[in-house]
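Task: sequence design from structure.
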């Protein structure tokens, strides 16, 4: 079972958000209408997070831990974001998945 305090986002091969859970929306300070269709590769301002997403799209799982200002809600938080590529059953690349955990300022 997935915890209620884990944000999950699915994005397509171009980095556009195609789905997410409610906690991801809460973390990002936005609603589903604003999130779906947003391009992570165009909208991300944090370059470390951008490289982590690009890495996942290239097939290399990545992780970002640090301070982050959300691109959709201008909310500041400390988080851990883990990204990975998604493949179909036949092995074709179909997008990526991000898992987000908010950290206390003392966590690392």
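Answer:
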């Amino acid at each position: 079972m997935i915890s209620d305090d884990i944000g999950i986002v699915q994005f397509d091969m171009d980095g556009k958000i195609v789905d997410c859970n409610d906690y991801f929306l809460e973390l990002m300070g936005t609603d589903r209408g604003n999130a779906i269709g947003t391009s992570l590769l165009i909208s991300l301002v944090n370059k470390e997070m951008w490289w982590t997403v690009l890495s996942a799209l290239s097939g290399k799982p990545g992780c970002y831990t640090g301070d982050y200002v959300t691109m959709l809600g201008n909310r500041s938080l400390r988080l851990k974001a883990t990204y990975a590529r998604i493949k179909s059953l036949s092995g074709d690349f179909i997008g990526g998945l991000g898992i987000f955990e908010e950290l206390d300022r003392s966590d690392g």
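The radius of gyration is 13 Å.
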